[in-house]
Fold this sequence. Notes:
This protein is α+β, with helices and mostly antiparallel strands.
Amino acid sequence: xxxxVKSILKTIPTDPxxxxxxxxKGEIIYVGKAKNLKRRVSSYFNKxxxxxxxKVLVSRIADIKFTVVNNEMEALxxxxxxxxxxxxxxxxxxxxxxxxxxxxxxxxxxPRVFLTRKKVNDGSIYFGPYPSVMTAKTLLEMLRQLYPxxxxxxxxxxxxxxxxxxxxxxxxxxxNCKAPCDGSISEDDYRQMILNVKKVIKGNIHEVLKDMKTxxxxxxxxxxxxxxxxxxxKYDILENYxxxxxxCSNSLFDMEVFSYEDAGNSFYVxxxxxxxxxxxxxxxxEIKRKLDETAEELMSIAIIEVRQMMESRNIKEIIVPVELxxxxxGVKFTVPQRGEKLxxxxxxxxxxxxxxxxTEKLRTLVDPERHTKRILNQMKDDLNLPVLPEVIxxxxxxxxHGDYAVAAMTQFVNAKPNKSGYRHFxxxxxxxxxxxxxxxxxxxxxxxxxxxxxxxxxxxxxxDGGKGQLSSAVKILQQLGxxxxxxxxxxxxxxxxxxxxxxxxxxxxxxRSETLKVIQHIRxxxxxxxxxxxxxxxxxxxxxxELNDIKGIGKQTAEKLMLExxxxxxxxxxxxxxxxxxxxxxxxxxxxxxxNKTSAE
Length: 601
């Protein structure tokens, strides 16, 4: 910290405001807002609270400037404007709203309604922006089905219309326009259509539907059934559009909903605008963390940015998943605990999660190596490994009451299954149910062979089991001189605890972590691969018995009997009632009669 910065820190007031950090070249590198400028700015220079990223930022601060404002809301808006203007290196930056389309109701006689990306200050009314062009186009197409608004660019002056200056075009003849150009529709009637268009775009659909229903019944009462049918068709179109958007059945209320999916460096936000219980706008976007900002800080920034972009003025309630340290005049923040508002929040959260999944999938397709390296680096950090775990091998053993003991090994390369590297093991030296001894045998056989053949050793070994299984594997690695050269962990299935050699306290990894997901995946693959091998061996030896000679008894029935009674001798000695409980009356009778007939002979 230079002398200039030290002097500035002493003069900073305790008022709310916005601060800017400059580097030695005079460029703004960070902009922040604060309720209390002095406390907030001073916190950056408290070494005990600094993360690595903050330390880098602080080391580059050569000058500090600040602007005092009246309240927190002014600070939020000013911060947002500064970030957009200067694009500081260490600030998050949301996508500018200039790239999004708007629906424009043109300020002109017989207004046109069209899609545009450019807002002109000419008195026209703009609705949006719409993050999805397809959404805006679909809405516009539906509006034109309901209301035949002109789409030509003619200047419809009253004298031109009265003098017959224009003649109706093809759009009029096919029913897409009411031809205001030749006076076929009055200005008042056209204005009413535009009024309804605005209501639909705003989401105030119930009022329009009610008006349509009144018109429909009026035509029907005068036996004008063709006119009534035309309105009914439009009524159905509008009702169907509204039904697809409804998220609440009875309660009608206006609100905005913000939720998020936190994925470390990436923070995904979903926004929904709800009018009369229907979603009329939805938008998901990603924020990149720059300085280990909290979820609450990122949400506050996102809310201010989106409300500016969407020009939210009339919505007085915002639904959020967590309490936020933010105040917007005239707006109530709600963290729902139950009911319809919680349902809406959960819907938004599902959208945020889905957006994260789609974004990450796209990145994987575009640059698979980048995605893989990110996962491997996270595993290296989470498990405190000396190298990236490019090759991981996992072991699982199983037996049936001490018989037919087998084991399986699965191999992942770059966090993905390498099925050509999977191996089965038949336990040869262990008698009876001894999982620890079985683990010692397969670890020895696997790595003795790799050493003898000079093959590549794995970077990480995963043992399916707790401390006992892990200790058995470690014992063999020590005998082979590999302990310390290969990292090894155990995973206990019940609570997904990760054990390290010599440490009795397990590690609990975040359930959302990709590290745990990879470990669970390779463990589950070992289970699946081992069970498949065990079943085949079981069928060849255990099931292939005298039971196969009984006509009418198939493999599944024989397997049920053997699993329950353990041997053919026990099946022979079993009563008819015991057999019936296992395989039913018909099959039990066949088995019982076979063995009793054989005994009698």
